[in-house]
Amino acid sequence: MQAFIQTIIDKHEAAPVRLLAILRDIQAEYQHISAATIEILATALKLPRTQIISVIEFYSFLHTTPTGKYDILLSDSITDRMLGKQNLMFYFASQLKLKIGELRSDGLVSLNNTSCTGMCDQGPAGIVNGYALTRLDRPRIDAIIKLIEQHTPVKQWPAEFFAVSDNIYQAGLLLQAPIKPGDALKAHFQRGAQNTLAEIDISGLRGRGGAGFKTAMKWRFCAAEPETERYVVCNADEGEPGTFKDRVILNSYAHQVFEGMTVCASIIGAEQGFLYLRGEYLHLYEKLQAILQERRESALLGNNILNQGINFDIEIRLGCGAYICGEESALIESLEGKRGIPRNRPPYPVSQGYLNKPTVVNNVETFLASTKIAVHGGQWFADVGTEQSQGTKILSISGDCAKPGIYEYAFGVTVAQVLNDCGAYDVLGIQVGGPSGTFIDIKESQRKLAFEDLATGGSFIIFNQSRNILDIVKNFTHFFAHESCGFCTPCRVGTSLLKKQLDKITEGHGSAGDIVALEELCQLVKNNSHCGLGQTAANPILSTLQRYPERYAEKLKDISYEPGFDLDASLETARHLANRDDAGAHLTQVEED
Q: If you write DSSP's letter for every residue of 246-295 in order, what string do you get?
């Protein structure tokens, strides 16, 4: 064991910033990271053992106790549940003769839930030893169990078990007519760095990860920093349930994404880039590594790119199952081998990012768009869309529709058009932007996809009239409670309280006062949380309470409060909590009570 671990440490140059990669390799070999292993790592990497333990405990794909030789996780996303995931999970457990969340007594197999695997268009989905499983059903589960009991290595399982489709149904400016590798760089070098940046500015391109910050402004800020060492980071940690567009872009358009990173590096003066790839996309890792090597051999990466005196290379770092790492500062912490805790801002990454150096962090789709703009010019892009939202948006569409998959639209498209194109009928509502976004009613189908109306990172989950609104909200609320990083009290405690309060109501034990208390708690968590997770965790409740109050009312019962309980006074106290500096302490007291 010690010899193997030393080989892994040497492979990663004993660099503490590569702690996650080291832990992933050890986990894959031994199914967990033992106390003895932690001691070896602490000595070799010159890190406190407590720091290593805290990192392991933070990420859901790392374990200090053994998992099975075959470690199976099933996606618990709402789209998977809609396809019968719960029954499949119970069937899987019964046939394997183990309990969900446990290691079988022979150590061969473990089975558990995971939040989402990014396969919402081809579920029910899961993961075995890190590799994606799609389109699960009972016959496929029977075949998987047989392979497990025969101790067949995962790499020898049938390829169709791991088949991941792109499912592109509508291509626009970005997805149609891919450019040849090197074309964007040639256009960029011919035009010059400042002129290329000017074209990005003319295009009006805004970040496609959800926040919508102007891309040219971010790059310009980073380039203006006095530090000479700068970094480019591509955020491919799309953990939002219902979102899978980045998976498709990286599978079929990776050359353009890497080229966009290289154009950015040339403009800001960076020599090192990172693709932070979510752990659930392990199946893409080797393919992406091969593309990077191909680009190096074609002088599109590495030293003296296209004989222009530009040096830049890209390293892929894999995540370990933490939704919070989609937040850019948490992602940077993870890149540095730490827990993915969002940083206080300011300073922003453009001035103090990776290793406290100026860093540009952009979404996969943003880099894809910048490459096409470098070739075709800014006006080509700006002529499409609306005045405030130029260009196109790539959508991940899943749920109750005939054709779940990828659709690219010019900004300004109506929700009605999207529903018609994907074959969605008898619609109850749509979750726009994933659980952290907005749930809209079918009556709002004339609303437009744009930053000035319905802004989204790229997810549409469609629900028909047969679905239960409260089941949907419950799934989303449980997701946020599970994924909270635990850094700040309003989110750590607040999301747990939201989960408990909502469960109380949906299970028929609530009263009208509980609804009011739920709303108050939503505002408290939203207004006092440290980062975007906590600030948006209450959105599923708030948006559905506004649109479907009768669905909540149907679950209430008429109860009498105990003598001496003053509901009005208690709620008045809650209203003031959001304005207090010690709101977190009060939430902790509420939880204890």
A: HHHHHHH-HHHHHHHHHHHHHHHT-SEEEEEE-GGGGGGHHHHHHHHHHH
Residue pair 454/415 in contact (Cβ under 8 Å)? The answer is yes
For the structural domain made of 470-592, what CATH number should be given?
Answer: 1.20.1440.230
Tell me which amino acid residue 173 is.
Answer: L
What are 329-358's pLDDT values in tens digits? 999 999 999 999 999 999 999 999 999 999
Query: In this predicted model, what pLDDT tens digit does every residue of 7-38 receive, in sequence order?
Result: 999 999 999 999 999 999 999 999 999 999 99
Q: Residue written as tokens 């358009």? A: 253
In total, the chain counts a number of residues equal to 593
Domain ranges of the chain: 2-56, 70-164, 169-382, 392-422+434-461, 470-592
Query: What b/e sequence results for 411-437 when a residue is b if at least 16 CB atoms lie within 10 Å of its CB, and e otherwise?
Result: bbbbbbbbbebbebeebbbbbbbbbbb
CATH number of 169-382: 3.40.50.11540
d(CA 409, CA 457) in angstroms, rounded, equals 13
Q: Which position has the token pair 């009006």? A: 204
CATH number assigned to the domain covering 70-164: 3.40.30.10
Helix (H) or strand (E) holding 333: helix 328-335
Q: What is the pLDDT of residues 64-103, one digit of tens each?
A: 999 999 999 999 999 999 999 999 999 999 999 999 999 9
> Which one-letter amino acid corresponds to residue 257?
V
Residue 588: per-residue pLDDT: 53
Distance in angstroms (rounded) separating the CA atoms of residues 452 and 215: 17
CA distance 483 to 534: 10
